[in-house]
Amino acid sequence: MSPLTGAGNDRPATLADVAALSGVATSTVSRALSNPGRVNVLTRERIERAARELNYVPNSQARALTSGRTRAIAVLVSDVTNPFYFGIIRGTQHQLKAAGYTQLLVDTEESDELEDGTLHKLRRSFDGAILAASRLTDRRLTALAKEIPLVAVNRQTRGVPSVFIDTPSAIEQAVGHLVSLGHRRIAYAAGPATSWPNEGRWRALVRAAEHYGVEAVRLGPFAPRQYAGAAAADAVLHSRVTACIAFNDLLAIGMLPRFRERGVRIPNDLSIVGCDDIFGADFCNPPLTTLTAPIEQAGRTAVAMLLSRLDGGPAPMARQAVTLPTHLTVRDSTGPAPRTAPTAPTTNGVPTA
Q: Where in the sequence does UniProt note compositional bias of the Low complexity kind (predicted)?
């Protein structure tokens, strides 16, 4: 047993201890453990054996001071309670863990100010950042990308590395599906005004509606949460449409009980389409037709892009932007268009709440 690990010595082992046991300089130990390729194989193996014998655990703060690297990545999401982000977080966590990095998870609460402020307050604590559905302006995001190694998920901004989940293409599929069922007036229950994907989905719906010769109606904005579903459902009933595409699944799922309260049958009287195919979309009542997205893959891809940049300089232009395909998954919330659009119930000609 090494005297450094003997009874009564509870002091954590240091680089100097590993160096003494392996018979090399402390600087050699540091290189062997942080950049193994720069040290002779036999020397590295001797150092690694010594580190294991001493139960040596690297000090991340000391390593950051000497190398300028923390081995931590900040992952910012707009709403940690939204199941959409569960997949992003799971993907980033798995990929970062495999690469030996720690994940710093931040909920920005749909706030661009909180997102911006957090990045600056924690800047010394992470090597790079992944921004999922960033609420920052294009100008601010571009400026940050020049200051901080980052990758944006579900956002396309010139000069900013990104992983884009192509929901606009699936929106076009959804419109084609609804048109094939006879729908001619389709609503879009919009998400937050600061959401970049929100505008992309609306533009895709308008293009598809023009292509098929049907009418698109924009409603909202609504919070991208289940509680906003009641207000969205009421707006749909006042818009005289026979189908609605919601900004996300949470909003669509929140609309379903409100329609039941008001005697509107889904899909007999009205068809509903969600977006993201989150956990629960397939066992709500009725199961939700939605746009299925490779959410976990987006998190993994963002980490791979960011670590490639950190380890080898700027990524090639071909890797500055990655687009992941999506598709429409048809379930029971869509059906043939009714002869007339459902309307809000009235009492003596006055719409009820």
A: 336-347
